[in-house]
Model the fold of this input.
Amino acid sequence: QQRAALMFLSGARYKTEEVAGWGLVDRVASAESLNAATLQFAAEIAENAPLSLRTTRATLRGDLLEKVRATLVHEHGVQIELQKTEDFAEGVRAMTERRPGNFKGH
Done:
């Protein structure tokens, strides 16, 4: 949770090597081999018993779908409100001009 908060609040970009130690990366593939690596990974999963896979996924996810839906609804509402602010417009300008934002909290 601490690292998630750091990522959300800082908006920083991280290198693969850095976040791999945080458990955020399972596998890495080059852009050229991404499709083949993805298909290989899917094939590994598909070799398992389908009923076991379904129940394992349900166990791992629990009520995750409902939590994600509620969070997305909340986030969407917040984003709509924030898009009306001066800080949002400043953030867009700052990104376009490739400069730090000059935010006022308005």
